[in-house]
Amino acid sequence: MFFSKIPAYLIDSENVGSTWVSLLNKDEKFELFICVTENAKSLNFTLLKELTDEHRYKINIIECKPGKNSLDFYLSSYLGYLIGKGKHSSYTVVSQDTGYDGVIEYWQSVGIDVKRINTKPEKVKKTPSTARTRKRPETKAETREKNPNSEIRIIKKDESKEQNVPKKRQASPKKKEEKPKNEAGQKLLYELLKELPENEIKEVQKYLDKVPAEKRSEKNYIYRGLVRKFRSEKGLEIYTLIKKDLDRYYQVEKAQA
Description:
By secondary structure, the chain is α/β, with parallel strands linked by helices. It folds into 2 domains: about 5-115, 5'-nuclease (Rossmann fold); about 185-255. Helix content is about 40%, strand content about 10%. The protein has helices at about 15, 45-50, 70-85, 100-110, 140-145, 160-165, 185-190, 200-210, 220-230, 230-240, 245-255, and strands at about 5-10, 30-35, 55-65, 90-95, 115. Strand 1, helix 1 and strand 2 (about 30-35) form a beta-alpha-beta unit. Helix 7 (about 185-190) packs across helix 8. The chain is flat and about 90 Å long. The model has no long low-confidence stretch (mean pLDDT about 80).
């Protein structure tokens, strides 16, 4: 229970999916109001409950009936309800939908601290690259006009000599394959993350090996690091697959050291 006013975040889950999970990295105390419908199937609420056992934030699930713009109306109405209660210091709508801006501008005009943010990365439009214009080579006549006194010499290669000279083949240096320090730990990760590409599994191992020894027992610390490295949805998926075996992974690494 919070005794002082804290910020409130209202999540449009149909619009931003589970990218709002990055808000859990905030150090301040705050309260989340997640508006969901049956269309919001990507949210793992069982895992969320486990991750949000801390007292820094509180999560509320607002169930909305499905329908065209139904969630938008629920969220806008709930925003007014929370403002009327006056228990929060500020209000943030988490959505990339600009349709909320009219409601937000109204509350701002009467002195309420309200804004909208988007946790979902916007797609960058690719601009067509400008074609490079190649300079046309000058003709012999044009060159003579610029430098009338210059001589143009055409040097022909003696192809017969080149044919008789064998070309030396340089042996390419063999790349040494670096074996991972924690081979048993890598084998464990391959079992846990078998659905992921090999390069992503190796990146996960690099991150886990860099976690300071005093932080390896703090699963929330490891979770937040995975979210920062792989973005919200991917980091959440990886953490779900390895969380139960983190202690086992670090015990294997310690035994090999």
